[in-house]
Every structure is written in structure tokens, then in C-alpha cells.
Design goal:
The chain is of the alpha/beta class. About 35% of the residues lie in helices and about 10% in strands. It has a single domain, classed as TIM Barrel (Alpha-Beta Barrel), CATH 3.20.20. It is built from 14 helices and 11 strands. Helix 2 links the parallel strand 1 and strand 2. The longest helix has 20 residues. The model has no long low-confidence stretch (mean pLDDT about 95). Bound molecules: flavin mononucleotide and iron/sulfur cluster. Flavin mononucleotide (FMN) binds next to strand 2, helix 11 and helix 13.
Length: about 450
């Protein structure tokens, strides 16, 4: 089905659209479940709202959070969400996706500790239960940049469709990969000391650990067979668990939606169709290694943004219905949880559903599809929504994210980012960019950007 921009005022209108798609899910009349805690042995979550990792590209040159970064996390801390991420944070300099990406080192860790303590204090002063604070640890792989902001890709294996034109990608060596778990261990130990509740090992959206899961053409210890392709992720998880003793979660691409031989979790006949054979095996191994939460996601924001970030205006017209795409993703999470329920499951893609997201989250959670609803852009646009919803049972449509992609535009033009539509700070920043320098939206449907 073709994409139609979000146009639902009421749950009944959304229910009709879902029914026309043959979905068994319909917005829940009873949403009380969202107020209930999740209590795995590792860490309790006070409610079913999570703010997912949202990079602001506004750290200091050495990787510490800047005042603008702190502003974002003060807003998140006051939200009332039971789970809060601190965004993608590099474990070493050659893994930074931009010169302003956060990076945790001996030098920057005290600033992370201050920020985590401030977040807990703000949540407490607002009368919210203690949030679970996760620090997302990453190596950006093919999306790494030099300190000057120039592409400095370190790829798992070359791929003509994704390699930037004119840049000969450097393939990361087995020896460099052998050394990476140590960098994650170091970063996780600093995160623990800084007061984070857990660390997330980022394995999604085309960054290094995710790219390795599809590195079928790569020779050596980290490519080819399934065991080789997931070796680094599993080694990293095991070592962080054993050597640091902090709870570990994984943000996992469960379906990449790019073609074989590169894509993970995709069907050989049609890469748009998930094949969860390998993701199920991986989830078994992650849970066996002690991962307590799996935050499921999909796609690659540089290549097929509509797969992970449903949008209504942006780089191209989404080639498929964003409602269908969301259901496809949630269906994958449902199948993984049914296959192995030994972890807490978070699902993504809630912002596009605007003020009706809580009804949809409650329906899917009640049906046992997943446990927690993860919100990305809505946290930029409307950071007070969980507290408002918990108090009043409603979200204000006039405050919601409109899925316009302008926060991504800010990022892609080398700026710090936030909500251009709802946050005056970023509206002013966007206006300061000359019109001719802003990314041009295309009216054509597309896939590869
Ligand atoms: C500006 C921006 C920054 C993001 N930064 C991260 C990040 O640091 N780590 C990550 O795993 N995902 C990141 N994402 C993806 C979001 O966490 C989320 O998966 C995505 O926006 C889809 O959810 P939504 O539809 O609720 O926005 C980012 C997305 C945007 C738009
Ligand atoms: S700029 Fe604001 S409204 Fe637009 S997609 Fe980003 S968060 Fe949503």
C-alpha cells in the first residue's frame, strides 16, 4: 500500500485504517497497562515509556556533554519515562560519527557522571520514580568521521550501494576488531562509575557491529558464517558482563531491509521481507550471555530511513505505507519475544503515531508483542508527554512530532539537533541555515538516499 501522511484524529479512525490492512491490532480502550512496572531481575522499569537514544551532535570536541547536551537531558529527565537512554557515545576516537559525538574516556567520564546525577535529581524533584539510565556505546564503522568532520569510514566489507562515492573505504582489520571489546569494557566501566544503570551495546542502523552481522563476504574470524558475523557482539557483551558487572542491553537491528549478501534478517527472495531465522539464533545467544533488554529496531537512516523512522516529509516520499512498515517491525518483535521471552523487549517507531501512540502501545503490550514502547523524535518534540499522559491519560496533538525530518536535516548539515517545529532553540538554528544549503526534499518515492 502507498504511503499516506498521518491523518487520524481519533482512535476509531486509526482502528479503521488498521482493519483495512488486516491487522489484528487495534487501539486499546484500556491503557492502564502503560502505568505498570516491568520487573526483570536485572533492573526494574517504573512504566512502559522509554526515550530512545537520540544523538544531538552537540558534545564538546573531547566528547564530553556540552551545555546544549545537558539541556536535552534535563528535558528528558523531567519526562516521567521509566527508561531513558543517553545517546550513541563512542568508545574510541576513530568510531565517532561526527566531531561533536559524545565519547566516554577517563577525561570526559566526570562530566557524564555530573549529567547522570543531574538527571536523577531532576526526576526525583519532579516526583517521578527513579528512571533506568542507559548509556549507548558505539563504534560508528562506515559512518565514522575525522575530527575535521570528513568521512573516515572503517567498513566491515565494501558495498557499492552504501560506500560514499569517491571515498575508498578502509576495511577494518581482524586485529582492530580483536581490540574492540577492550574499548567497550573500558567505556562500560566508566559508565558504571558515572552512575548509569546499564550500558547498551549498539548493534543497529548500519554502524559497525550491525554491519558485521551481514558481513557474509568478509574473510577471516569476523565474516562469512553466522558464528563469525556475531562473534564480536557476543564477545563484547560477555566481556562487559564478566569484567564490569553492569547490566547489558543491546539495541539490535532485527531486519536491515537491504539486499543479501549484506542485509541481516532479510529474506533471500525479497529483502523487504524479514527472515528471522538468524535474529532468533542471535537473540538466544544474547540472552544466554545475560542481556536483560533487547531494544529492537531496523533499517539504516542513511539508506532507507522509512524503515526505522516513519516520516511524512523528508528526503523522499516513503515508498510504502508507514503504518504498514510500523506493523511489520512490531510483528518481528512479537515473533522474537514469542521465540525467546528471556529478556525485556522494547519496540521502536512510535513517534509517527502521534497522540494515538499510547493506545497502540497498550494494545501491543497487552497482546504480549513486547514490553516497552520506545520513542525517538517525540522525545525531542514533546519531552513532557509521558508525565502529561500519566497524569491526564492524553497527549496533546498540538505538541506532537510531525515527522518532518528537519531534525535529521540539522544533523546532516553539520549542526547540533533537536526539534525544529516545537523547540524555539532549534527553529532559530534551522532558520539560520541559508535556504540553498538546506537538504532538498524530493517529491519522488525512493529507497536509497
Ligand atoms: C536526530 C536523531 C538522532 C538519533 N540518534 C540515535 C542514536 O544516537 N542511537 C540510536 O540507536 N538511534 C538514534 N536515532 C534513532 C531513534 O532512536 C529512533 O529509533 C528513530 O527516530 C525512530 O523512532 P521514532 O519514530 O520514535 O522517532 C536517532 C534518530 C534521530 C532522528
Ligand atoms: S523536527 Fe521535530 S517535528 Fe520534525 S521530525 Fe524532528 S522531532 Fe519531529
Amino acid at each position: 500500500m502507498h504511503h499516506q501522511p498521518f491523518c487520524f484524529q481519533t482512535a476509531d479512525e486509526l482502528a479503521a485504517a488498521l482493519s483495512s490492512l488486516g491487522s489484528e491490532l487495534t487501539p486499546a480502550a484500556d491503557t492502564a497497562l502503560l502505568r505498570t512496572p516491568v520487573c526483570p531481575s536485572a533492573l526494574p522499569l517504573a512504566n512502559r515509556f522509554a526515550f530512545q537514544a537520540m544523538e544531538g551532535c552537540d558534545g564538546e570536541a573531547d566528547g564530553r556533554p556540552s551545555e546544549t547536551t545537558r539541556r536535552r537531558y534535563r528535558r528528558f529527565a523531567a519526562s516521567g519515562a521509566g527508561f531513558l537512554y543517553v545517546e550513541a557515545t563512542a568508545v574510541q576516537p576513530n568510531g565517532r560519527a561526527n566531531p561533536r559525538q559524545l565519547m566516554i574516556t577517563g577525561q570526559t567520564a566526570p562530566a557524564f557522571a555530573e549529567m547522570a546525577a543531574e538527571m536523577r535529581r531532576i526526576a526525583n524533584e519532579a516526583g517521578h520514580p527513579e528512571p533506568c539510565l542507559a548509556l549507548q556505546l558505539t563504534h560508528s564503522g562506515r559512518y565514522s568521521k575525522s575530527p575535521e568532520g570528513k568521512p573516515a569510514p572503517l567498513v566491515a566489507w565494501p558495498d557499492l550501494a552504501r560506500d560514499p562515492a569517491g571515498v575508498l573505504p578502509t576495511v577494518i582489520t581482524d586485529e582492530e576488531l580483536d581490540a574492540l571489546p577492550e574499548a567497550f569494557v573500558r567505556a562500560a566501566a566508566l559508565a558504571k562509575e558515572a552512575g548509569f544503570s546499564c550500558v547498551d551495546i549498539k548493534c543497529c542502523h548500519g554502524y559497525l557491529l550491525n554491519e558485521l552481522t551481514g558481513a557474509r563476504l568478509r574473510p577471516g574470524r569476523y565474516g562469512g558464517s553466522f558464528e563469525n558475523r556475531v562473534r564480536l557482539l557476543l564477545q563484547t557483551v560477555r566481556r562487559v558482563k564478566e569484567e564490569v558487572g553492569i547490566p547489558v542491553m543491546v539495541r539490535l537491528n532485527v531486519h536491515d531491509e537491504y539486499p543479501l549478501p549484506y542485509g541481516f534478517g532479510v529474506s533471500a527472495e525479497d529483502y523487504r521481507r524479514p527472515d528471522l531465522t538468524e535474529p532468533m539464533q542471535l537473540v538466544d545467544k544474547l540472552i544466554e550471555a545475560g542481556v536483560w533488554l533487547i531494544d529492537c529496531t531496523a533499517g539504516n537512516p542513511y539508506f532507507n530511513p522509512h524503515v526505522n523512522r516513519p516520516f511524512d516529509s523528508g528526503p523522499y516520499r516513503p515508498p510504502v505505507s508507514q503504518l504498514e512498515q510500523t506493523l511489520k517491525h512490531w510483528q518481528c518483535v512479537r515473533e522474537l519475544k514469542a521465540h525467546n521471552g528471556g529478556a525485556v523487549y522494547m519496540a521502536s517507531m512510535f513517534s509517527w503515531l502521534r497522540h494515538l501512540a499510547p493506545e497502540m502501545a497498550a494494545a501491543a503490550i497487552a497482546a504480549g508483542w513486547f514490553d516497552v514502547a520506545g520513542f525517538g523524535r517525540q522525545s525531542f518534540a514533546y519531552p513532557t508527554f509521558p508525565a502529561e499522559w500519566l497524569q491526564t491519560g492524553r497527549m496533546d496533538p498540538a505538541k506532537c512530532c510531525v515527522c518532518c525530518s528537519k531534525c535529521t536535516d540539522l544533523m546532516r548539515t553539520g549542526h547540533g539537533t533537536g526539534c525544529v517545529v516545537r523547540d524555539p532553540h532549534y527553529a532559530a538554528l534551522y532558520r539560520s541555515i541559508p535556504v540553498e544549503a538546506r537538504p532538498k526534499p524530493s517529491a519522488a518515492p525512493g529507497e536509497h538516499v
